[in-house]
Amino acid sequence: ENIFDRSRMAPKTPIKNEPVDLSKQKGCTPERNPITPVKLVDRPQPDPWTPTANLKMLISAASPDMRDREKKKELFRPIENSKQSDTPDSLQYDMVDDSTVEEFEKQRPSRKQKSLGLLCQKFLARYPSYPLSTEKTTISLDEVASILGVERRRIYDIVNVLESLHLVSRVAKNQYCWHGRHNLSQTLKTLQEAGELQYGELMTFFQHKEQDLEYKFGERKKETIPDSQNRPLLDFSEPDCTSASANSRKDKSLRIMSQKFVMLFLVSKTKIVTLDIAAKILIEETQDTVDHSKFKTKVRRLYDIANVLTSLALIKKVHVTEERGRKPAFKWIGPVEFPGKTDNPTGHSPTSNPLPRTQRGACAPYQICATGKQRFTRHASFNNAQPCEGTKRKVSSEPNSPHQERQDEYCSKMINLAAVCRQKIEEDTSSPSITSPLSLLPVLGDSDFYVNPLPQAVFPVVQADVPNLSLPNGISSHALHPSMPAASKTENGKPTLLPNQPFLCFPSSSLFMLCSGLQENNMSETLPTTADVGNKSAEAQAAVPPAACQKRNSRKCVSPSAPADDEEPAAKKQIMEQSDVPLSLVVPKKPFESPKAESTPGNGRTSAAHLEAFHLDLTSPAAPEAADKESTKPLNYQEQEKWSQNKDPDEASSGKEHISKENANQPFLPQYLYVQPTAGLSSFNFLVSGNQAPGAINLTASQLPSLSIPCVVVPSAALASFPLVCSPTITSPLSPVPDGSFSAATSMNFSMSGLASTTPVFIGTTAVVTPEVSPTPPVDPEQPAHPTLHLSPVLARSCGAVKLDSPVQCMGHPVTLLKLQQPSSTPLTPKSIRPACHEAFFKTPGSLGDPVAWKKNEGNQTRNASSVQRRLEISSTSPD
DNA sequence: CGATCCCGCCACATT
DNA sequence: AATGTGGCGGGATCG
Description:
Blueprint: H1 2-12, H2 19-28, H3 32-35, H4 38-42, H5 46-62, H6 64-81, H7 88-107, H8 116-125, E1 137-140, H9 141-148, H10 152-164, E2 168-172, E3 175-178, H11 184-198, H12 200-208, H13 210-230, H14 240-243, H15 253-267, E4 272-274, H16 275-282, H17 287-290, H18 292-311, E5 315-322, E6 326-332, H19 357-373, H20 375-385, E7 393-395, H21 402-428, H22 437-440, H23 447-450, H24 453-464, H25 470-480, H26 485-488, H27 521-526, H28 534-543, H29 546-555, H30 569-580, H31 595-599, E8 610-611, E9 615-616, H32 637-646, H33 649-665, E10 672-676, E11 684-689, H34 705-708, E12 714-715, H35 739-746, E13 749-750, E14 761-764, H36 787-790, H37 793-805, H38 807-812, E15 816-819, H39 830-842, H40 851-860, H41 867-877
This protein binds a DNA duplex through helix 10 and helix 18.
GO cellular component, one term: RNA polymerase II transcription regulator complex
Region (Disordered): 1-50, 63-92, 334-359, 382-408, 536-606, 622-658, 847-880
Organism: Corythaeola cristata (Great blue turaco)
């Protein structure tokens, strides 16, 4: 019947040929349709339809409902086309025949005509983008479906996506309320924030690490609850918590997916997200297992979502050229900044930034844990977190600012990194067991580790959990101080990894991101042009008004001088902030993983690590902390880009501000280098932050670039399993060496955009923390402080290394250490971890206590339970 | 042939 | 049980 209908009905609609024109035209001249007798002949199934048609008619007559629907379907078009409709019924008949035939031929309804995107446009066309606040338009799914001549199912697809952006909301069965785009910016903002948290987590993770996580986590999930009240529309990813009771059904994946997808864009510096990456990131659950099919399905859904988003003019399709070829991708063309900015009225404002840094730290771990914890969650988080890709890709789409684009690309890469890595790995390793590292995490065949990635993070948390983050900080400071550094330093640059020194050990599978926030304003200024020239940047910094620096300091970095005092709380804060600033993402990619190897740092083999390509273009505007600027102009990313490029003073300044603001929230361009470990050999995985000042980084030998760079090198024991991260950048204004040199040496491209100081972050197994140095070295050269003290051994090491080139730099920069794990040697067992995480994580108001309840739910599954709960449930079950 | 993604089955949710 | 929702993936179509 459907077929008939369609054929019948559809034909009527002029849509096919030139939908627009014809329809309109037809309206005027309906008559011509009738003429062609051909219809019968041509039409494929002439016979059937006739009878059917009759039936239809009858049926419709019989049931009002049916009739309505049918009518609408049929009528609508006809109506549009022609006014004849006076006698709809009878006419329809005729018309149908005639028109049908013709159309039929013409149309050949191309698939495109029926595309979801087109449908969505039609749908959107029916409602005002900015409806009067007062008027509430309700949308009846049936009605719309019939009007648009599609099955309801399709409408659901559209509405679900729109709902995710709060353009509509469901009021009742079959009824949706149209809100229009009034809240769009707010929604996007929220999503951005949430996205930062979620996806940025990893990135952030390092940044704020301790503090943040907690908050994030807590905030995210918890916050929503309270906030939700306030906010009219927003529910993000995890709305469930709050409304848990209400939540019904499994989390509508399409909706959530849509939000996540959008988040990826918002978080992505480049604003370009490739489908495959998005799919990977969005895939949760058992990734490994099904993978392919699942991936495929996910991609399909993404297309659905993308079509709708495209119709909303939020994204556009582009292609990213990668090593392997071009990949489909989408670029965000919607608003980048949101007026609402800092906080939302809704109350839930503080997403990430607002939180006090101190507190944040605590959060972070949780988050991670949480994510890691459950399989689901874990996966999700995991996936989410990883942003970058190791590989480089180009965006072909824009000619304009290739340069930036690239940078952006990188950023995006980072973002995607994880995903990509995973993919690669997967691809590379066909064997399931080995599978991609990423995948590992979640599923991890090895139960032991499976927890690892996250767990580690968790660990700290757990320990600390009650108390606070502060602990870590304090600890860190202590720990760091140790004179260790000296030892660490190696003579030539080869960094030896000290077994003792633990940096990060991540299971190979895990990825980490560091975000190099880049610097603040300064950075941005310098960056814009070409990151390439380190010197310039340095100069620029110098040029930069101190005030700016101060500001920065005040905000994020407490005081430059602070560095010296690690002990001070301020330092802690600084850390946090700093963390914000520079982040780098790292993804470890390990071909194969051996848990043991991972755990044992062993000696770092100095085997040369490869530097894989990394370009780090740093150009990205620094993320200034300035977030607060009052200026809230929304910038388009484009503008920003331009701005950066152009560097007009005026604009720049303004731009900076904007950027800074935004950046504050988000990590910006991650600049990082990824070093890939050589495969079988022990290799070091490490990332270097791109920010580093060229000078700092002089790498003499390609061999051990790492040393020279203030980065952390992680030795991968057997494998390159440990990823590591490091980031800091040091910039050394003092002796900025053209990055070129650096790059040359290493073969990497660094652009050092950041001379600016980025604070380096280190992650160490030891929890350490970081004393901070002033964030802006250049600014306060005077008080370089002797951060070294604080520095962890590693740092020290790095510093030492650096020193060679520019000791000052090292010193000057604030370093942040994160403690990821304790000695890697003892991997946590998932189980053990789990509980803690579990609790911490999952407690949702509803869930809190009773497993029993959950159990019940299990039967039904999640109806009531919020998604979170569901997850929990799942996890709980699975663990057993 | 890979990228898209329409179509609609069917399971689950809600009424 | 009927109906609403929407996950899901086969397979058609596009490029």
